[in-house]
Amino acid sequence: MPAIAEPLPATVRAVQDIAPDMRRVSLGGAGLEALLPAPGALGPYLKLHLEDAEGYSCIRTYSIRRLDLERGELQVDITLHGQDSVGSRFALHAREGDNVGVRGPGVIPAAPCVSYLFAGDLTALPAIAYTLETLPHDVEVDVIVETPNHTAQCLLPCTRGERLRCLHRPAGTPSRLAEAVRNALPQPRGDVFVWAGAEAAIARGIRKHVRTTLGLPALNYQILNYWKAGRAEGDFDCLT
């Protein structure tokens, strides 16, 4: 389904802390069926039309965590990291009845495979969780996540035999995510799809391994720059 051109008006229905550093914002409104991703979408996303601290309009990208058309409700899980981030500040101050514009869905095409490897940091957990709930049950799934605490165990619905590895990364320590992906897939495999979302430099290391060592075709991987240290959204490319 193509992305809708204009933002849909939505209203905050509920706000819930689902982990020490993650807040779920549930939105309601008419026409949410326009946000329904195509079947098989991996980590579909949307655009929230928000305001910055000065009241200027800006857009931030978030994964669709869950879309319940029967209830007319959209769930977005937002990482909390202070007041300086537009999205984090929105989540910290969101209250029932607040209005927000929503545009989407965004989806990058993916080839169906018999096995999947998902990797990501805290910001990628909502996308991974959505995908785990929607993948066919006859595929093999490995998940590698790196978080500063036990958030992954709280937020990932691992009930279908996924092989889950959680890496603990205390603040100020180097990431081990790219190394873990290299160790999980040391040799080329033609039956695997690799999806990863992380900080841009870490994602670049994973992307290099997938392209150069594994030689996967473009439709067999999505390695996304979910954020970039010291940069706001719009100041970097999510795909390179």
From TrEMBL:
Q: FAD-binding FR-type domain: which residues?
A: 5-112
SUPFAM superfamilies, per database record? Riboflavin synthase domain-like
Question: Matching PROSITE patterns, A to Z?
Answer: FAD_FR (PS51384)
- Report the Gene3D superfamilies cross-referenced here: Nucleotide-binding domain of ferredoxin-NADP reductase (FNR) module, Translation factors
Query: Coiled-coil intervals in this record?
Result: none
Q: Transmembrane stretches, by residue range?
A: none
One Pfam family recorded for the sequence = SIP
Family per UniProt? Belongs to the SIP oxidoreductase family.
Q: What is this protein called?
A: NADPH-dependent ferric siderophore reductase
**Organism, as annotated:** Labrys monachus
The top of its lineage is: Bacteria, Pseudomonadati, Pseudomonadota, Alphaproteobacteria, Hyphomicrobiales
